[in-house]
## 1
Amino acid sequence: MGVFAEQYCRRMIVAGIYVQSNVFLAPITGYTDIAFRLLAESYGAGVAFTEMVYVEDLLRGRRRAVESARFDAQEPVRALQLIGGDPSLFRLLCGSPLLSDVEWIDINMGCAIPEIVRSGRGYALVHDLQRASGIIEACKSSGKAVSVKCRPGMDVKERSIQAFARMCEDAGADLLTVHGRPGNQLHEGPVLYDSIADAKACISIPVIANGGIFSEEDAVAMMRQTGADGVMIGRRGLEDSRIFAALTGL
């Protein structure tokens, strides 16, 4: 058993949901389907999120969105990631039978793809705290667990994480995931450990650290430098899903 499994891996309870480990599978467009989620969970992933699904697409019944929001009965936690910019649409969707099988809603407020930001979705919400708060409250009114995934800023000079993290907690979010790379870096470049640590220091809800974790050593370094409550694995999980077993000791 490795250092992470011995010293950092633990079970969690989030909004009354039992989570088998604090090692999560990130939502990855085109990849985190039922089969891949079940594989990650079999290796110990505590939560395996669906790919990002547009709120409007689900409300319109578009086939790709409906398929992406399906779950298998064997999945221990049914966690759906949504992206959108209109609190009223989130409220309509989250309270509808369309999400009757969903236990956990993750709100994407970190996607930095330019067209998504220009549409008022994803990272754009970090700079619109009132609208972001309304979205979180709308999701939480459904009684489901609610988390938010964000980035610390659009570039290394912009650090807006603490005000945003406090807003998330005040609005009712049960957990915050911080991808430690600025938006203009997407999935490359150094991780801003200090920004994740800043988020952890200013709120009491769990903080999950994401970005640049390709080995057990990376995961241990992330925990030591940020004080986070767990880690989220993305691309490395695609390359070798056994990283979940390495981190959880399974």
## 2
Amino acid sequence: MLRSMRRFAAFAVVLMFAPMAASAQALDTKATAAYVLDQTTGTVLLSKNADEPLPPASMSKLMTIYMAFEAIADGRLQIDELLPVSSHSAAYGGSSMFLDTTDRVKVEDLLRGVIVLSGNDASSVLAEALSLDGTEAGFARMMTQRAQQMGMMNSNFANSNGWPATGQRMSMKDLGILADRLITDYPTFYPIFSEQEFLFDGRVPSNTQNRNPILGLGIGADGLKTGHTTEAGYGLVGSAKQGDRRIIFVITGLTSTQERREEAEKIVNWAFRQFAQKNVVKGGARLAQADVWMGDIPTVGLTVAEDLSLLVPLMNTSNGISAEIVYETPVQAPITKGQKLGELVISFEGMPETRIALVADQDVPLGGFATRLRTAALVLWERFGPKPAAPTEDAV
């Protein structure tokens, strides 16, 4: 079967945008890499070096936390379970819960120790408990594998906490994917990220404050994780909710805690003030149709699975929006309703493109004997049938 990729302007979609064609004022961030996502609509608002694998520092602890939440959800780990502290975990410096090998710590306290206090030791204790071989290195290999399963293809882990190590890398987009999953998959646990203080065991009263600089600023911020090493600079995976909208953002490479706070607040204000949510396409509306190979009907419609809303920049100009439908044709039968067959690619001037899955609008069973016979005959005719004569020039 010969396949081809079809791309064409989605004029019907553009017409739906036409009264509000717009151009976004691109945000000029001091971060060396950044990614901003409107989680409510799936619109990417900013992408700066977002796919580049970079040292993630403590922001990589979010992967350890996600896997700990998974283990609690499936019963491999209990929230009130006491975990031992190995000499390896206790030896970590940097941000810490100040654990020692005489401690046995509740999982719930360890989670807060990682999220609120950014404890390298707490992260390692959870890692060793969940590792197949009982080591943090073994857990790091599990982290890399799980990240790839989640679509985080620019992530690789050498430890559980972001301590500087060869091969410890994540992209800002991958961290955005991870933040999205934490918020969506574990809404019961997510409020821990907004806790501004955690006093563990009363042993170090000076080590109680959440390092997230935008919590408590009144801008809807409620997570997620800071990071800092000399190599990575200052970074933050953040999220904020105002009204019905939630944004997720990731920044790194900043030069100080003050610059990190200023950039984070600037991004939140920009994302909420410069865009408006608009309905674009009704779910089920046929946007295009693809040829079907060996099906009992010749074509299948392409649609979005549910009503589609996007964020539109508020600054009005002209010709600022383009939309394109991309899919391979013909599509091999059988086809199931809802099966992804292509993408709707929407671009606003000054913003990254947004890709939305296009799915089949109906089932298409495999055709019967007559269909297969007719298809085979067409293939044979195309391969071996008479070819049109080459054009000739008339004599002058």
## 3
Amino acid sequence: MTIERIVFAVAGAFIVISVALAHFVSPYWLWFTAFVGANLFQSAFTGFCPLALILRKLGKESGAAF
């Protein structure tokens, strides 16, 4: 699995989990959803993603995006 696929999977999981937490626990979890979305948005333009840096240091293979 490449870095891109892991980043997309983790981001998707964080969004689904935070929306569920917002529904069942507190609406303040939507701030976490917004943070993940904003990070995805800025990485589309800058190519910088903290998770991609961590995965690269762990030796995962990189695809075209990161």
## 4
Amino acid sequence: MAGRRAEGVVSDLRDITLRSAPALLLVVLGEFVLPHDEPVWSATLMRALADLDVEPTAARKAIQRTTERGVVAAEKDGRRVRITLTDAGRRLLNAGGERVFGFTGESRDWDGRWLALTLTVPETHRHLRHHLRTRLTWAGLGSPTAGLWVTPHTARADEVAHIVDDLGLSDLAFSHVGAFGPVGDERRMVEQAWDLDDLAGHYADFLHRFRRLRADDARAAFRQRVELVQAWRRFPYLDPALPARLSRPTWIGVEAAGFLHHTRSAWAPGSDEHWARLGQPVT
């Protein structure tokens, strides 16, 4: 199970894992456009992406793709183009923000119950195996053994049901919510369900990379804030946020979450200042 989560993601989740022009644009929209909920010129977004080393052609394609996905709407105003978040775009960014910035790296007040999903995809549906594995993984579930998926987050039952139903596999699935039984070892199940050593290594790389950075001016604060958030966005989807009694004694995910919030806040004034400058007319 350990290496499976790195094999790829469905299209709407690629923007979380890959440092691409669409990925960076979504971060810019979430960090700087959504809070003000006001239209922005496409030229402002182009300048923002240029500051992030995105080539003009790639930047234009990213804006076009984001428009086609319905996240933003584009409206011509003379020779300029006004970009506005759609209702669907606001919902997408708000939901993502809640999960990404509300993530603490651990579960608190756990009631001891698990959500268990049993689902073996037959050969006749094998083309769906990758999509199922990917979407359940990104919903925070782990697989300790073939055909079994588990998570301590029982509140995600509706999300899991939607995934299974969306793939047309409901007739093949069974689920249960309850405490761990008398057979087996709970900690061993956790170790088999998630590759925590690999995840800890990614956290360590994240901390090493961003602890070395200093925002010497407003532009640097803008660049680094966007890069920080983009690099962080995958962790709330890959880390199962285990209850403290099932996790490592000092889980690095908790440290990394604290670092994210502190550093993002520290870079906020400078990055907001630079964003305001990007919106000013070019003379």
